[in-house]
Specification:
Layout lengths: L4 H30 L22 E2 L4 E3 L5 E8 L2 E10 L6 E9 L8 E7 L4 E9 L2 E9 L7 E9 L2 E6 L7 E4 L6 E9 L1 E11 L18 E2 L4 E2 L44 E4 L6 E5 L3 E6 L8 E6 L4 E4 L5 E5 L19 E5 L8 E7 L5 E8 L4 E10 L6
Antiparallel strand pairs: 1-2, 2-13, 3-12, 4-9, 4-13, 5-6, 5-12, 6-7, 7-8, 9-10, 10-11, 14-15, 16-17, 18-19, 19-20, 20-21, 22-23, 23-24, 24-25
């Protein structure tokens, strides 16, 4: 086989370059399997930061800690959680560098907090946890590791009560496991000292157990009462607890103490005192009705489809029926029903609503007991014909009576 010398040299050069590429790919693969080689194309973080006035910055592929500012606090805080961060010390040679994160900070910085870091100098390479107080810092624990410059390492802390576990680069067993009770809750942030430090893939998972708060009631002057095992509501329509809130889970065991054809309602009042309460379509999110004052929402079967519908009677006298398919069947107020003489009522008195089959046709009707400013009560009935509401005349009036 004949070939010239120059062509042979070119082939040898290509083969050498190919071998170098293969070696580089194999080296990258080994580093990746070892957990030390990470390429970050974007910044991924569960925390948000305000860089205004800070020497920290965010690039397309990392959050960079540099300059005079040692820390950057996020918008998050917590007590029990799992937090893991990819951290890279951007230095060389005999430089000293620290990079890590702040947890349970009692202020706007790393003072009065726990500081968890990777630390590299000419004489040591390790991960560590320090406890900061107003009087200074104390090392709670350290663990020696191999830490290279310009290499990302994943550091994870599991904070559970007084126990803090720290994992280095995807370990299954923590390198540090300590207990300390000083800082139980507080802010979360990033920290660096010495060289620049890069951060990415910040993952925060809240592991705290939702608090359970029992309700307490003041029965003074109320017709409600509490025995050893039950709270009983009688004449008064409601009793308010000592608690309030916006987002929560509330569960109650309720028993209707009646018999036969009696009508009864029992339930809970939530967000009482909010300026607005809403009836919302569960599929579209459309607000179907807004109650301007405190409202009580009840579930009844009205349009004869076998599914519970909603009824909201507002303390201002307005009412709305909402079908199970999310549409408003009827919306009316006292003035529209020609009860203008009842608009002015006695202080702290309101309408009482009942649901029963008053005319014996097998459909649920609406009965409303109203009281005027003079203490006279009035009964109005809305008969249910085909799933619609229509007005009937006032059924009766009377003088004020005890208990209402």
């Amino acid at each position: 086989m004949l070939f010239n010398k120059g062509e042979g040299l070119m082939r040898k050069s290509r083969m050498k370059n190919l071998m170098v590429i293969i070696v580089c790919v194999i080296t990258m693969l080994i580093s990746t399997l070892a957990g030390n080689y990470r390429v970050h194309a974007t910044v991924n973080t569960d925390l948000t930061f305000d860089y205004t006035g800070s020497t920290w910055s965010e690039t397309s592929d990392a959050i960079i800690g540099s300059g005079a500012n040692l820390s950057l606090m996020s918008n998050e805080s917590g007590s029990d959680f799992e937090l893991d961060v990819d951290i890279r010390l951007d230095g060389s040679g005999s430089q000293a560098s620290q990079g890590g994160f702040i947890i349970r900070s009692g202020g706007s910085d790393y003072y009065n907090s726990y500081l968890i870091m990777i630390h590299k100098t000419s004489t040591l390479q390790r991960i560590e946890i320090q406890k900061f107080t107003a009087s200074g810092a104390t090392y709670l624990a350290t663990a020696n590791k191999t830490i290279d410059w310009d290499t990302y390492y994943n550091i994870k802390v599991v904070a559970n009560g007084s126990n803090l576990k720290i994992y280095f680069d995807n370990e299954t067993t923590p390198s540090i496991d300590v207990n300390d009770t000083l800082h139980s809750d507080g802010g979360i942030g990033l920290f660096r000292a010495g060289t620049d430090v890069s951060f990415n893939n910040i993952n925060l998972v809240d592991t705290s157990t939702p608090s359970t708060t029992p309700l307490t009631f003041d029965y003074t002057g109320s017709a409600w009462s509490e025995s050893s095992d039950i709270i009983t509501g009688t004449t008064d329509l409601s009793i308010m607890s000592n608690e309030s809130g916006s987002d929560f889970e509330l569960d109650v065991d309720i028993k209707l103490d009646g018999s036969g054809t009696q009508a009864s309602q029992g339930g809970v009042v939530v967000r009482g005192g909010s300026p607005n309460n809403f009836v919302v379509d569960k599929d579209t999110g459309e607000v179907l009705y807004t109650a301007v004052v405190k409202s009580v929402i009840s579930a009844i079967e009205w349009n004869n489809d076998g599914i519970c519908d909603g009824y909201s009677g507002d303390y201002d006298g307005s009412m709305v029926m909402v079908s199970s398919i999310g549409s408003v069947m009827a919306k009316f107020d006292r003035e529209a029903l020609s009860y203008k003489n009842l608009i002015t009522r006695r202080k702290d008195k309101h309408d009482t609503n009942y649901y029963c089959d008053i005319n014996g046709d097998g459909r649920t009707d609406l009965v409303i007991l109203m009281m005027d400013a003079s203490g006279n009560y009035h009964v109005a009935v809305w008969y249910n014909t085909d799933g619609t509401v229509y007005t009937n005349s006032v059924q009766g009036t009377g003088s004020s009576f005890t208990g209402y």
